[in-house]
Design a protein that fits this description.
With 295 residues, the chain is an alpha/beta fold. It is 38% helix and 20% strand. Strands 2-1-3-5-6-4 form a six-stranded mixed sheet, sandwiched between helices.
Length: 295
């Protein structure tokens, strides 16, 4: 990976979302492009709902090596693609578009990104009892990942029980499993005490600037957790993470997930393999960028 690999042609990549001003994706992709000698232009694009189809079918299909998709379009964009990767189809959300011979293909690299992050942190899923806080699209995707990776039991805890039950029913239909359950948030006390659970915080509660909040603030809940993953990465240590650590558990944020979903997207677009050392260097660059954005 050096300048001799550089090509004069600019590789156009981008991000579709609304808003996109906060994105750290250019930091990751520009660092990877520098390492590979790729002449890359990564462009965040704030797209209005009425312009989504035109942006995807004309701009992305016409002149881009690939594109990321963020909120609120991860599901809506599917209607404008030609085909889907099997995981994206199961999750029902796309965050990466790849031009292929068959047309625009949608992938979900968020969940593989989370898996890589957890593996790097030494967190296993197989055989674990997993608690997922939340019942939105992210929680649904996490539940699917946990089941695919061999979790022993999965519990969705949500303020509105019906939303969690809907995900349980969907997962039972998709996976043919019976080891996923729905609980109302306050029903966590039905779970046995002891550091028995891997917990994944899949809501926006605690996200900057509302950093003094956690979905559950009773310390008794955290006595059940041996490892907590908060998919938020700003702040670097959320209140959820502080609770986990205070009760003797290990806690991680979502920054490595952000890194690895981008790494996988870059690999798909440019048909390269990112060495572990480069991923780690890029992670440090990413951490520095988050630190610089503190207000």
């Amino acid at each position: 990976m050096n300048s001799q690999n550089r090509t004069d042609s600019i590789r156009q990549c981008g991000l579709i979302g609304n808003p996109v001003g906060h994105t750290l994706s250019p930091v990751i992709h520009n660092r990877l492009a520098q390492a590979f000698g790729h002449n890359l232009e990564y462009q965040p694009m704030q797209v209005e709902p009425e312009d989504l189809e035109k942006t995807v079918r004309e701009y992305v299909a016409g002149c881009m090596a690939g594109c990321n998709v963020t909120v609120p379009y991860k599901s809506a964009v599917i209607a404008h693609l030609d085909c889907l990767d099997s995981l994206a189809k199961e999750i029902g959300a796309v965050n990466t578009i790849v031009p292929t011979a068959e047309g625009l293909k949608g992938y979900n690299t968020d969940m593989p990104g989370l898996l890589r992050a957890m593996e790097e942190d030494g967190v296993k899923i197989r055989g674990e009892q997993v608690l997922i806080l939340g019942a939105g699209g992210v929680a649904r995707a996490v539940a699917l990942l946990m089941l695919k990776e061999g979790a022993k039991e999965v519990y969705l805890l949500n303020r509105t029980l019906e939303k969690a039950e809907t995900i349980v029913q969907e997962m039972q239909a998709v996976m043919g499993c019976t080891n996923i359950h729905a609980l109302q948030l306050e029903e966590y006390n039905q779970l046995p005490l002891g550091h028995n659970y891997l917990a994944i915080q899949a809501t926006s509660v605690g996200l900057y600037p509302c950093v003094e909040r956690a979905v559950i603030e009773d310390v008794e809940f955290y006595k059940r957790i041996h490892t907590g993953y908060d998919l938020i990465y700003r702040p670097a240590e959320t209140k959820f993470m502080k609770f986990v650590k205070a009760q003797g558990g290990k806690a991680y944020n979502g920054l490595k997930m952000l890194l690895y979903q981008a790494v996988i997207a870059y690999e798909l677009w440019h048909r390269v393999e990112i060495p572990k050392e480069l991923a780690q260097q890029t992670y440090q660059v990413l951490k520095d960028a988050v630190e610089q954005r503190k207000e």
